## 1
Amino acid sequence: EVQLLESGGGYVQPGGSLRLSCAASGFTFSSYAMSWVRQAPGKGLEWVSAISDSGGGTYYADSVKGRFTISRDNSKNTLFLQMNSLRAEDTAVYYCARRSQYSSTWYTDYWGQGTLVTVSS
Amino acid sequence: QSVLTQPPSASGTPGQRVTISCSGSSSNIGTNTINWYQQLPGTAPKLLIYSNNQRPSGVPDRFSGSKSGTSASLAISGLQSEDEADYYCATWDDTQFGGGTKLTVL
């Protein structure tokens, strides 16, 4: 059974940093691209970042580019999101998600339960 | 502001067929496939439809997707109370999401 378990969320002041982790199990982690998607309270889904299966390719939404860094440790089946210079608008539930490919397109087939990040003074 | 436009709400009665639309442009839906996600209250999203009309194993065939030009639709037939949820369309390999549609089963 595929499981994605996020951790590291919490309360942080504007300008602060947090590092999210996502422990994956139930599949060959190193064979899958992964992503982070967030959802502000009462709002819709927003893609944040994605990383290739090897970690050699990383991609970011304009809203977080230069502040967030996605990475992975395939030896530990773990995905990370380093978040710096946090702003109030970064407050959201952050979901770790697995990406799969069909033909030449991608979709998100498994999602974690999410971890809440609150940025406030 | 989402680049994909969905109606904020939709509703139907049990057994009815409802459709949820997702409107975009030639630069997104027009040239990319659409995925659909269901988010039950208080839970994480779940994949419902991928690549316009492909249903993952385990998703009932009551759910179907289609795309034409710069618009896409999710159809739910035989509406059930447990279908009450938020539904999101997504494109550009899930880097662009619609604003979501809250489906109410009356």
Note: Chain A has a mean pLDDT of 97.
## 2
Amino acid sequence: EDKVVQSPLSLVVHEGDTVTLNCSYEVTNFRSLLWYKQEKKAPTFLFMLTSSGIEKKSGRLSSILDKKELFSILNITATQTGDSAVYLCAPFGDDKIIFGKGTRLHILP
Amino acid sequence: DAGITQSPRYKITETGRQVTLMCHQTWSHSYMFWYRQDLGHGLRLIYYSAAADITDKGEVPDGYVVSRSKTENFPLTLESATRSQTSVYFCASTRTGHYTEAFFGQGTRLTVV
């Protein structure tokens, strides 16, 4: 059965801190792993990862995939209050995309 | 306008009624998905479709029906709505080849009273 586990489920840090969000997965016929950010509306796309060991970066956010160990991490450096959101991990395998429960990140000013 | 749109955005219905949520995309994406989002559960896959006339059950399909007669449309029907189906529903689509993001509609907030 397909499974996606994100940790931690909730995280509160101060502005300027660095955070690491974790995602482990088990899916059949893995193709890619997607990261999304969700505030009060539909999820917005952050990264797509297909190959192990290649870091994707966008500003203060970066992500990496380990296809052998079946996990991915999302790093956010120098966090800002605007980073407060739920971060969702979603592997794409066997014609479907399933989501983890997400990590709820709250940044204190 | 190009994109993926859901309708209605908000719906209140009574227990036992049939209700259909619409999803339309203009990109001719092969893959389409329906999710429901409830507090504490994240996004759960209801049904998905790899192409027109091909649909499959996801994690929580009971009480729902889908069809995909045209590539651009993927309606979700609640045959006999129950209070437990009160939720926010998201439709998403993506291209073939798997190497692309999934694009989301704005969501439909459904309340069953």
Note: Chain B touches chain A at residues 31, 33, 35, 40-45, 48, 50, 56, 58-59, 90, 92, 94, 98-107 (CB under 8 Å).
## 3
Amino acid sequence: AQSVSQHNHHVILSEAASLELGCNYSYGGTVNLFWYVQYPGQHLQLLLKYFSGDPLVKGIKGFEAEFIKSKFSFNLRKPSVQWSDTAEYFCAVKGGSYIPTFGRGTSLIVHP
Amino acid sequence: GAGVSQSPSNKVTEKGKDVELRCDPISGHTALYWYRQSLGQGLEFLIYFQGNSAPDKSGLPSDRFSAERTGGSVSTLTIQRTQQEDSAVYLCASSYTSTGPNQPQHFGDGTRLSIL
């Protein structure tokens, strides 16, 4: 069975600070990995995804994530956050199942 | 529309009543998923459809929950004899196919269900 763990449930940063949100998964085979974002009052939307190739994936709005197979991790990063990045962030893994498994989410608040 | 459409956006009902939630996926998307999101929790998988069939119903919490999909398009999630613990946001997502490994899901705005 596949599972996902997001270590940080709540993160509070000031604008221009760097961000790294942890995501670890459990699955022994080939995986596809996703980060979704849910801005206040909006629906979940895809931020970035990894399925093969370069383990460093770049997404929208300056976000990137690195797949480290040996660590079963897919951490999300952004060098300098903005107030508009305030949102809920979800990591998801899709392994052998057709059903992506989502983490519990990380609430990010960025103070101006 | 271009996105996944869910209705109603909000539903308040009394304990014991039945409710029906609707999802209209993106045109051409064959896979459709239902999730439940409770406060402070992640997305809890309920059921998924490939076309009109539901290969995986393992996430349905009890036999009070059922779902159907007709014409490979619209899906309805029905909760019978609602309980207060059913209060949550019910999310629907669709993707072009379920078998493609890298198919992202497109989510609707959800239905916020409140059981009094």
Note: The longest strand of chain A covers residues 87-94.
